[in-house]
Each structure stands twice: as structure tokens, then as C-alpha cells.
Specification:
The chain is α/β, with parallel strands linked by helices and 276 residues long. The chain has 2 domains: 2-215, 2-enoyl-CoA Hydratase, Chain A, domain 1; 219-266, Lyase 2-enoyl-coa Hydratase, Chain  A, domain 2 (Orthogonal Bundle), CATH 1.10.12. Helices cover 45% and strands 17% of the residues. The protein has 11 helices and 11 strands. It has helices at 47-58, 94-110, 126-132, 149-152, 158-168, 170-179, 185-191, 200-215, 219-233, 237-250, 256-266; strands at 2-6, 15-19, 24-29, 32-37, 68-73, 115-119, 122-124, 136-139, 144-146, 183-184, 196-197. The strands form 3 sheets. Strands 3-4-5-6-8-11 form a 6-stranded mixed β-sheet, with helices on both faces. Strands 7-9-10 form a 3-stranded mixed β-sheet. A two-stranded antiparallel sheet has the order 1-2. Helix 2 links the parallel strand 5 and strand 6 (115-119). It is globular, with a radius of gyration of 19 Å. Mean pLDDT is 91; it is low at 1-18.
Length: 276
């Protein structure tokens, strides 16, 4: 059991709660949620750890004041995430592990919060897939990304085969997944798997600045923007435009914050978001 800081009221004093997290650390504060992988040194994933991650993300449905999520490894970890723990691939456990992994993926989409991932070490196998779940990824030169399942386990990574073609394109996804060879942080940046590459000494500052900038915006507008982008990915350009226009006119424009933004411009003042 670990202590978790939460903001019961946005902008108020944090209160301490007890949460059943053993393999992650979870903190809510100042409109941000910080999820830290806490199974050093390699942060190997298992069903229990993945379930804790899913529970943490799902709990954000009860915290509309939270605007952005940061996923990172603890400072004592040598890896961002070394992938799925080998015993999880046994016939007795693999179904439970995949269900838990899928639950994390669904939760990362369902809660609608932008997710920033900080990678300061190897992200291998399931760890690479976990990083790819992020809407934005900040990495250091110490990071490397690999899906080695095909050469180590004689398997393919089920989440990477679905998501990587969207992120880096089908041909580069084929190359990564069919060879199992790692790519450097520099290559990941070129491919679009990483948004920004910074020196290790600047990682914390860069991530804090990015997360803080996002947390200044309206929570429902952030969620709706993420929704418009991801729901449009599987559509033709014409369908995506229609869908985006529908969301803009029938959902976004009905938000109090959207109207507040218009009023603030006309009144030449800073908008005061109510997160609704």
C-alpha cells in the first residue's frame, strides 16, 4: 500500500488517500496525474502491474479537474520498461496478461486525458508498446525502442501490430516488427514515435513545462480534441472532416469553456476555465 496525493477540489489543498498500488506510484496534483512505473530496475510488466495502471487511469473518470497524465519510470530504474515478464507468457497466465494490457489501452483512450510519456532508458517489447500509447513522447539519448518478440519468443506483439502502422507507417512498422531490431532515440524521433529528444539533464524540466502548458487548458476541450484526432484516424479525409465538424458544432460549442473563451477574447482578459 502506498500513499497517494489527490486534489479533491481543483486548486485546493491535496489530501492523502490510501490506494492499493504496489507496483506503480500514482499522484494527482495541480490538474496533473503522474503514473510512475515502480518495479525497478527493469519495470517488467505483469498482469498485476498492468491492472494497477488500468485502475489508476480509470479512476480519472472521478476527477474531471485532472487535465493531463504523465507516465514515467522511477529515478532508480535502469529501464523505462523492459517489457512483459517472461512468466506472463505461460498458457496459464497469457490470457490474463493480455486482458490487463488491453484494459490499460482502453483506459488511456476512454478517460480522454492527453498522455505524455517520458522515456529515459530502454523501452522494450510491451514497454515500447506502452510508450506508443502516449499521445506525446519525450525521450533522451539513453532511450531505445524495440519489439524483439519475433526473434526472442517466436511471437508478434499484438498491440504494436495494430498501432505502429498508424504511428510510423506500415513499411517501417513491418521493418521493426519483422526484424525485432532496436532503434535509437534519434531514429524514433525521425519516425514520429518520439515527439522530442532532449539531453538527460533537461528531461525533467522539458516534461514539466510541457505537462504544465497542457494543464493550463480546459479539461473537456483537451479530451474532445483527442477524441476528434483518434476517431478520425480510421476515416477517409472527407469522413474525418464531417466528423470533426459534427463534434465542433454539436459538442464542443455547447461547452461552457468554449463560450468562456469567446467572451474572454472580446473582453480582452485571460479565460477562467470551469472544466465543463
Amino acid at each position: 500500500m502506498v500513499e497517494v496525493l489527490t486534489d479533491e477540489v481543483y486548486g485546493g489543498e491535496p489530501k492523502k488517500e490510501r490506494e492499493p498500488y504496489k507496483l506503480i506510484r500514482w499522484q494527482l496534483r495541480d490538474g496533473q496525474a503522474h503514473l510512475t512505473l515502480n518495479r525497478p530496475p527493469h519495470n517488467y510488466l505483469n498482469a498485476e502491474m498492468l491492472t494497477e495502471m488500468a485502475l489508476a487511469l480509470e479512476s480519472l473518470h472521478e476527477h474531471p479537474e485532472v487535465k493531463v497524465v504523465l507516465i514515467e519510470a522511477g529515478k532508480d530504474a535502469k529501464f523505462f520498461c523492459g517489457g512483459v515478464d517472461l512468466p506472463e507468457y505461460t498458457t496459464q497466465r497469457v490470457f490474463q496478461m493480455l486482458d490487463a494490457f488491453a484494459r490499460v489501452f482502453r483506459a488511456s483512450l476512454d478517460v480522454g486525458k492527453p498522455i505524455v510519456v517520458a522515456v529515459n532508458g530502454p523501452a522494450l517489447g510491451g514497454g515500447c508498446e506502452l510508450a506508443a500509447f502516449g499521445d506525446m513522447v519525450i525521450a533522451t539519448p539513453k532511450a531505445k525502442f524495440s519489439q524483439p518478440e519475433i526473434k526472442l519468443l517466436g511471437m508478434f506483439p499484438p498491440f504494436a501490430t495494430s498501432t505502429f502502422p498508424y504511428i510510423i507507417g506500415p513499411k517501417r512498422a513491418m521493418e521493426m516488427l519483422l526484424t525485432g531490431e532496436p532503434i535509437t532515440a534519434e531514429e524514433a524521433l525521425e519516425l514520429g514515435l518520439v515527439n522530442k529528444l532532449v539531453p538527460e539533464a533537461q528531461l525533467e524540466k522539458t516534461v514539466d513545462e510541457l505537462v504544465s502548458r497542457i494543464a493550463q487548458h480546459s479539461a473537456p476541450v483537451l479530451a474532445m480534441t483527442k477524441k476528434a484526432i483518434y476517431e478520425g484516424l480510421g476515416m477517409s479525409l472527407t469522413e474525418s472532416l464531417k466528423h470533426s465538424h459534427h463534434l465542433f458544432l454539436n459538442e464542443l460549442y455547447k461547452l461552457e469553456d468554449s463560450q468562456e473563451g469567446l467572451r474572454a477574447i472580446l473582453e480582452k482578459r485571460k479565460p477562467q476555465w470551469k472544466n465543463r
